[in-house]
């Protein structure tokens, strides 16, 4: 009787977990898409496209989790031994993939600072102040979004080609604080400008984004471990006792 209660509980938990897998699929795809969209705004500050590999993998895992949830629900309710075995094998593969995502996430998170340090000076040197120029749009966007100016501070603009060519002793208007009216970007009025440089803030932002991927992968890997455990309990019980009740049969024997 206790064994039957345990197996019924395992099946109930497993069905519930499969519903969570469907929700997880949507969340993982959202996280992956968010990383892609956000990195697109900062892509001029790093050159290693492989940094996006964890996001690509996590979107693929999200799509696979939806299929896993469907297989798991059907296999659990019908108590298909083949279906449950397939479910466990796929879960193990996805679990291993998520571990790889976590490892890659930490590797590329450590490389973010090096990438930004290597690229940011080049991007600032390419700035020409026109909206049609991609590096210029990227710098203006970052300075407005992160409330920063220059690489380490606003004085870095004095070393750029744009500053020397404009000859008006000013920085881009994207350096102006939003609460300051009539800001012209003039270096003679430093109080109107963001005091902090963008380099450290870009690194911090990109590292935060990568941590979203890492935490999402870790969270759902833990849930999958519980799913694998419940599926193994059902499989083992099913193998030893072929005459125990189906979850929705109301007493009909398999």
From TrEMBL:
Q: Which parts pass through the membrane? A: 12-37, 49-72, 84-108, 209-236
What SUPFAM superfamilies has UniProt attached to this entry?
Answer: Tetraspanin
InterPro entries associated with the record: Tetraspanin/Peripherin (IPR018499), Tetraspanin_animals (IPR000301), Tetraspanin_CS (IPR018503), Tetraspanin_EC2_sf (IPR008952)
Q: Name one GO cellular component term.
A: plasma membrane
Q: Which UniProt keywords apply?
A: Glycoprotein, Membrane, Transmembrane, Transmembrane helix
Q: Where in the cell is it found?
A: Membrane
Pfam family name, one: Tetraspanin
Give the record's membrane topology.
Multi-pass membrane protein
Q: Does the keyword Coiled coil apply?
A: no
Hydrolase among keywords: no
Q: Which PANTHER family match?
A: TETRASPANIN, TETRASPANIN-3
Summarize the subunit comment: Interacts with claudin-11/CLDN11 and integrins.
Write out the function statement from the record.
Regulates the proliferation and migration of oligodendrocytes, a process essential for normal myelination and repair.
The family assignment reads:
Belongs to the tetraspanin (TM4SF) family.
State what protein this is by name.
Tetraspanin
């Amino acid at each position: 009787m206790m064994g039957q209660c345990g197996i019924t509980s395992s099946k109930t938990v497993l069905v519930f977990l499969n519903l969570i897998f469907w929700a997880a699929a949507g969340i993982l795809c959202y996280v992956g898409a968010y990383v892609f969209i956000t990195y697109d705004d900062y892509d001029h500050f790093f050159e290693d496209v492989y940094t996006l590999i964890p996001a690509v993998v996590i979107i693929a895992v999200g799509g696979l989790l939806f299929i896993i949830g469907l297989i798991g629900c059907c296999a659990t309710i019908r108590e298909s031994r083949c279906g449950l075995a397939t479910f466990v094998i796929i879960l193990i593969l996805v679990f291993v993939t998520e571990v790889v995502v976590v490892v890659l996430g930490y590797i590329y998170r450590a490389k973010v600072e090096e990438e930004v340090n290597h690229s940011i000076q080049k991007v600032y040197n390419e700035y020409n102040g026109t909206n049609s120029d991609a590096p210029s749009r990227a710098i203006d966007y970052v300075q407005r979004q992160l409330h920063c100016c220059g690489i380490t501070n606003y004085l870095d603009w004095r070393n750029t080609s744009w500053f020397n060519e404009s000859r008006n002793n000013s920085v881009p208007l994207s350096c102006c604080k939003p609460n300051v009216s009539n800001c012209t970007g003039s270096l003679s009025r430093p109080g109107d400008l963001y005091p902090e440089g963008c380099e450290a803030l870009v690194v911090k932002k990109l590292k935060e984004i990568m941590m979203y991927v890492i935490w999402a992968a870790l969270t759902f890997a833990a849930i999958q471990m519980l799913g694998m455990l419940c599926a193994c309990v059902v499989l083992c019980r099913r193998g030893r006792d072929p005459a125990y009740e189906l979850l929705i049969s109301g007493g009909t024997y398999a």
